[in-house]
Amino acid sequence: MDLTHVVRGRVPRPGGFDDVVVTVSAGVVSDVRAAVSGDPASSGILLPGLVDIHNHGGGGASFHSTSSEEIAVAAGVHHTAGTTTLLASTVTDAPSRLLSVVSTLATAAEDGLIAGIHMEGPFLEHSCRGAHDPELLRAPDAGLARELVAAARGQLRVMTLAAELPGADEVASVLTEAGVVVALGHTAASAERARAFLAGPGGLVTHLFNGMPPAHHRSPGPVLGSLGAAGVGDACVELIADGVHLDDETVRAVMSMVPGSVVLVTDAMAAAGMADGDYQLGPLSVEVRSGVARVADGTGNGSIAGGTSRLIDQVRRHAAAGVDLAMLMKAASLRPASVVGLDAGRLEPGARADLVITDDALQPTRVMRGGAWLSA
pLDDT tens for residues 346-359? Predict the structure, then answer.
């Protein structure tokens, strides 16, 4: 079998594109050079595989599952859309269920289907819970954290934690000792507490603005505390840049303020890549109308319950509005990979061959993952 591929395309750089030829050998990028006369015709825009570190599912399937088949469906719908590397996110649930889900996801990570696990909950602030079951939230518990770390078998990459809760520092210590990134999120922490936490054990902020009180000039809270930490290099901040969770101007303002600290994420749930309808997010029922997922509370105005975009959709949305594509791609590939310790999101010799070819409108036409072209 021929394991060599030669692909020519336009790779984004600040303010424009470079016309390059990429050679892939045995699943690895072996060469990247400037295109010359006689090379194959350009395939379109050429991007590194995208990296999503906050993703609950898609294609009608959830990562919060003990079914390996369901996990494969959820991963596949993002892989084929160009997200070649992703963390599977859990939601708040009973400890026994979390341990089972984490063990199943660890197997999926060991098999290379996902790149690891992100646990969102159960140690979250009740008033900032969003789409997390209030009956299942728990005070930070170092013993349970150790059990979850053990169940993950080295595959737990991130855990979201409300820093102001009693016991949060003890849980953070357990996580950092295990090499897990501690993320501040679903929190009402003061700005001072947020900054101190991010300067210490924390290194990431889970979906900035969402799941936290709004900033006020006399009560800055976790939003401005997080931005302050990002501004001095203590943290990266996740943004769900889908036009639902955040206004587009909010996204662009943050990218202008802390351009080197933004990580784009989908927070996708089972409805990503699917039609409107009724879905599950862990133990909660969710209704999706006009592409917006909300907790089904009978009013139609329940809390936003995850996203329905895929990461390339967010890149396309903001590139069309004039945001530099190279900046967007760094926030959707290399930076998220780096913050959670993954070697991904690079288009250079020695990197795993994860490539996305798109048309001029940034619609994917072909996706390569690990040197193999994926079927749409």
Answer: 999 999 999 999 99
Catalytic residue among 267, 297, 313, 360: 267
Tokens matching residue 47:
């991007």
Name the pLDDT band for 300 (thresholds 50, 70, 90).
Answer: confident
Question: How confident is the model over 136-144, as a mean pLDDT?
Answer: 98
Beta bridge partners of 50: 83
Q: What are phi and psi of 288, to 5 degrees?
A: -115, 120
146 labeled part of a ligand binding site: no
CB-neighbour burial class of residue 27 (10 A; exposed 0-12, middle 13-18, buried 19+): middle
Give the pLDDT of residue 2.
58
Q: Give every CB contact of residue 300 below 8 A, 6+ residues apart in sequence.
A: 287, 289, 294
169 assigned to active site:
no
301 among annotated binding-site residues: no
- The predicted pLDDT at position 335 comes to 99
Q: What distance in Å separates the CA atoms of residue 329 and residue 315, rounded to the nearest whole number?
A: 7
Residue 106 has φ and ψ, to the nearest 5°, of -60, -40
CB 159 within 8 A of CB 204: no
Residue identified by tokens 């936490």 is 197
The mean pLDDT of the chain is 97
Would the annotation count 245 as a binding residue?
yes
Instruction: Compare 6 and 300 and report the one with higher pLDDT.
Output: 6
Task: Please indicate if the annotation marks 69 as binding a ligand.
Answer: no
Q: What residues contact 259, with CB distance under 8 A and at least 6 apart?
A: 327
- Structural domains of the chain in order of their starting residue, each with its CATH number: 4-47+350-373 (2.30.40.10), 50-340 (3.20.20.140)
Written as one string, the DSSP assignment of 203-234 is EEESSTTTTSPPPBTTB-HHHHHHHHHHHTTS
> Does the annotation place 55 within a ligand binding site?
no
